[in-house]
Amino acid sequence: MKIGILSDSHTKSDYTELAINHLKQKGAQYLIHAGDLCIEDNLKLLQNSKLVYVTVFGNNDRSLLSLSNEYNIQKEPYYFKIKDIKFKLMHLPYYLNADSDIVIFGHTHKFECSYNNGTLFINPGEICAREKPLIECVLLEINKNEYIITYYYKDINTNNFMKEEFKYERE
């Protein structure tokens, strides 16, 4: 199973579209966005991807509250399952405890991944290239015995995504 993970698009729908298309090209079957979409165009991109997706409201998403019935946008922390894997999704990193198999968060605009006591923690970084000139996203591959996290990043002035890979043996 392959899951594309994004966060902090802000008003950069062109970067969001680029990242979604890249993740789909790499085989993503699901999309998870950890908030701060800021504009409806970013929600439309998730919906139009034709992939199953979920997102949460970020601290800059007040203007999107009225759209919660139209799009799959939830209040944080949001718990859900894909197959037999339990996820917790949030924007603000306030609920970083190991009460799920995978915890996904955003807000800091910094890529992070770690595996502690049977829980995988992921922050995919930022789409918006606000803190640094990088568009960032993650492809999470879940296999029977391992997690493979591929961190993709692209300088806004270049054409290609670069990548780093992290592997953790599942407990």
Written overview of the protein:
It is built from two helices and twelve strands, in the order E-H-E-H-E-E-E-E-E-E-E-E-E-E. It is mainly β and 171 residues long. The strands form two sheets. A seven-stranded mixed sheet has the order 4-3-2-1-10-11-12, covered by helices on one side. Helix 1 packs parallel to helix 2. The two termini are 17 Å apart. The mean pLDDT is 97. Its cofactor is a divalent metal cation. Its EC number is 3.1.4.-.
Which class best fits the helix and strand makeup?
Answer: mainly beta
How are the strands ordered across the major sheet?
A: 4-3-2-1-10-11-12
Give, in order, the helices and strands. Answer: EHEHEEEEEEEEEE
> In this structure, how is the largest beta sheet organized?
7 strands, mixed
Q: How many helices?
A: 2
Q: Which term fits the overall shape?
A: globular
Instruction: Give the averaged pLDDT, no decimals.
Output: 97
Q: How many strands?
A: 12
Rounded radius of gyration (Å): 14 Å
- Ranges where pLDDT stays below 50 over 5 or more residues in a row are none
Helix content: 10-25%
Percent in strands: 35-45%
**What is the subunit organization of this protein?**
single chain
Distance between the termini: 17 Å
Secondary-structure topology with pairs:
Elements: E1 2-6, H1 13-25, E2 30-33, H2 40-48, E3 52-56, E4 73-74, E5 78-82, E6 85-89, E7 102-104, E8 111-116, E9 119-124, E10 134-142, E11 146-155, E12 162-169
Parallel strand pairs: 1-2, 2-3, 3-4, 6-7, 7-9
Antiparallel strand pairs: 1-10, 5-6, 8-9, 10-11, 11-12
Helix pairs in contact: 1-2
Cofactor: a divalent metal cation
Protein name: Phosphoesterase
EC number: 3.1.4.-
